[in-house]
Write the structure tokens for this entry.
Amino acid sequence: MQQYNFYKSAELGSLVLKNRFIKAATFEGMYDDGIPNKKLVDFHSSMAKGGVGLTTISYASVSANGRTFKDQMYVNPESLVGLRRVVEAVHEVGGKISIQLTHCGYFSKNTRNGVPIAPSRVLNEYGMLSGLPFSKAMNESDLEETKKDFVWSAQQLKRIGFDTLELHLGHGYLLSQFLSPKTNKRKDQYGGSLENRARYPLEVFRAIKDAVGTNFPVLVKLNLEDGFKKGFSVEDCIEVCKKLESANCDGVVLSGGFTSKSPFFLLRGDVPLKGMVKNGSNWAEKLTMALFGPAIIKKYNYSSNFFLELAKRVRQQVKLPLVYLGGVDSRQGIEEIQKAGFDFVAIGRALIHDPNFLQKIENGEISKSGCTHCNQCIVEMDRGGVRCTL
Ligand SMILES: Cc1cc2nc3c(=O)[nH]c(=O)nc-3n(C[C@H](O)[C@H](O)[C@H](O)COP(=O)(O)O)c2cc1C
């Protein structure tokens, strides 16, 4: 198995990166009415200055109805103007930049768009208290329209200078809802067997790849597992990686969890319940969170490289480039990932805590991040912008 020096330059498809470190997509909340603001520019340019080979803007919805809440950003002529400013700022300091393309599916409390669309009619735990208790199963025209939205968005993002894209097939968003047997109850060619559940996400991937051309890398973020019984499993993940490999995918970012059902599976550490109650969008949501939060939201203990054992199982079975993500917080942890044969490593919280984390690791100033996985950063993203409160 090939082992790479993560600190040296690397190719991601046709793209040359200065090293193998990627800033993982972490929702920034740096938008004014859905338009990227100056904070977003500064956030990503500080990541590039801090030394990551590639930084990733999170959650770019491909359409207005792909937003989980109403003022979130979606790809449109106005937001593209703001996104271009972020791209230019990152390029000016010698960095490269990606953006996560996604659609929320049923995970919506965006009342502006009416009933949310999803593979099947399912209970919408997230939007229930905002008056959107169920999703509607996507019909043929919904499938076609949504695929077109993904393709159009990808083309626009390439046009304004992004170096690559990350298509979100994980964390319980629309394409992950197709992959998961828990939320995909369809009886047609898009439901049932893994072959069928993977069909629509792969159609979307191929359509994007055809539209942006072979010289433009497209990454996929995929769950190792959903984090609950009868969900998408690591065996499913291996099979989907093989299909993505055949479809010329440039790399898969491995993660896990389902935002509406097992949100802390992908984060681990403390559940910042107080802040989450305060951020509730109406009194019913605040009350429910305060009363039932501890019962509804499962806590998972944090450990460094918490997905490594699962991710190794995928590494052993597939050849396409794999990006390790989850609990990367130390020099020793990075070495373990190198040894296990991963191609790249993505980091979230250690870089929110300190954008210079990697420089400090490389020059020996620190050997471990000061992030305590208190997860207050996820509360802050709904309060003016993601930041570390330590
Ligand atoms: C504040 C915050 C926001 C996040 N938002 C997103 C997101 O929008 N999309 C996504 O795919 N993952 C998101 N994540 C998950 C991260 O990409 C990553 O999977 C997780 O933080 C584990 O990596 P880490 O241990 O390096 O932080 C978010 C994580 C945090 C902490």
Remarks:
- The pocket of flavin mononucleotide is lined by residues 24-27, 58-59, 100, 168, 171, 221, 255, 266-267, 325-328, 347-350, 377-378, 381, 386 (CB under 6 Å).
- The chain has a mean pLDDT of 94.
